[in-house]
Amino acid sequence: MSEEGRAGAGRFHGFDGLRAIAIVLVILWHGALVSRFPDGAMGLLRPLVKMGWSGVDLFFALSGFLITALLLREERAHAARDGGARFSLGRFYARRALRILPVFYAVFLLNTYILARAPVFDSVRATQIAAHHSPLGLSPYATFWSNYFVAYFYRLTGRPVDDPGLAYVVYWSLCVEEHFYLVWPFFLFFVRRWRARVLGALAVCLAVPVLRWLAVDQNWDGQNAIRSLTHYRLDAILWGALGALVHERLRPLVRARRLGLVAALAVAGVLVARGDLSVAPPGTALGLALGLTMLSVAATLALVDLALVPSSLGARVLEARPLVAVGRVSYGMYLVHFQVIDVGRRLFFAVPRRPTVWNLVLSCGLYVLLTFGAAWLLYRLVERPFLRLKDRYFEPR
After folding, report:
1. How many Å apart are CA 207 and CA 300, to the nearest integer?
2. For the chain, give me the number of helices (H) and strands (E)?
3. Mean pLDDT taken over the chain
4. Using alpha carbons only, how large is the chain's radius of gyration in Å?
5. What is the pTM of this model?
6. b/e string for 344-382 if b means 16 or more Cβ within 10 A?
7. How far apart are CA 114 and CA 213, in angstroms?
8. Helix or strand holding residue 284 (H, E)
9. HEC string of 46-68?
10. Which residue ranges make up each domain of the chain?
11. How far is CA 350 from each of CA 29, 256, 342, 344, 358, rounded to the nearest angstrom?
12. What is the three-class DSSP state of 264?
């Protein structure tokens, strides 16, 4: 959700379009969920809606690829200029902070002190936290460890976690990203050999699915925890990072890349059809282990192909102006989409409507448009000034 929009001085064609697809999938999934749209009324859209949560996995792969590519370009630039093949950790974290934090805290404060007091916003329940005198309040959500807080607070204290609303719950994915980027740049900084980097990343990518399998099989954690905790999900970002490390080596392997993409999608499709790869109803150990991995591999191979063949038909389609416009504000859209769905649902369903495929398309289309409008305002008022500051003072040298 929060990846850099540019990689060095260049820009990967089609990546903004993929971000747009990812956020639309997430809004489709959450829009149908919040609107309580019956599965039987979704028609041919049902598989797409039920897999809408996979948009987050696409965001993860995008983030890993783009940020790793940015660091590698900075590293190569340093090597060419002065022979010191090192990027700046300080500049990386300054860029990251200016990209992520201003709009995040703007929305967080808006939720907590304004929207929480308006009855129209069912996804914001911050006033309930205050009313219950929760000892930690909203601090876990404001400091990027709410995924562990939600998963383990009751287990450790015996006290239930107060529900702050879905607008805060979605921060789990931001937690995974921020935890990952506390470690990955240091790994790249100190491990300088390409082979060691690739083998280290690949080892983790292969170990994490085994960990997910054991967690389900041995009942170590519930499926919600397995889907949201960093140590179970970091491979989704790491596959994208691995793609950035190896994509130039894959340039001559066109057929192998595309066969791999088709194979990964086929395996994921079979697991979806069997019910193994699912959120509602819950999936199986096989789906959480192999299925999530196949989604990440497919996303990474798609990114590699776009990076290597920027003039391909797929890249040209993904460069359509509406997709690029949505992709560029997709982070803001992710932060506010539940709040906007609250408004859109009241507008669209103010009069009784039958649960038809057409009404599903119209309602989710409205949610996407309204969310884009809100995110565009955030971009103009909050994001853009800080992005200019980032570009002016902290771009790679």
Report:
1. 18
2. 21, 0
3. 92
4. 21
5. 0.94
6. bbeebeeeeeebeeebbeebbbbbbebbbebbbebbeeb
7. 42
8. none
9. HHHHHCCCHHHHHHHHHHHHHHH
10. 15-393
11. 21, 52, 12, 10, 17
12. helix
Beta-bridge mates of residue 10: 7
Q: Report helix, strand or coil for 358.
A: helix
Backbone angles phi, psi at 71, to 5 degrees: -65, -40
* Residue showing tokens 């932060």: 335
Helix (H, G, I), strand (E, B) or coil at 10: strand
List of residues 6+ apart from 68 with CB closer than 8 A? 184, 188, 240, 241, 244, 245
What token pair was written down for 110?
Answer: 């808006």
- Cis bond upstream, residue 281 (ω within 30): yes
CA-to-CA separations, 180 to 64, 102, 235, 297, 328, in angstroms, rounded: 9, 20, 9, 18, 22
Per-residue confidence at 5, pLDDT binned at 50, 70, 90? very low
Is 176 a residue whose pLDDT tops 50?
Answer: yes
The residue assigned the tokens 């085994």 is 210
pLDDT at 49 over 80: yes
Task: Quote the pLDDT of residue 223.
Answer: 93
Q: Which helix (H) or strand (E) holds 253?
A: none
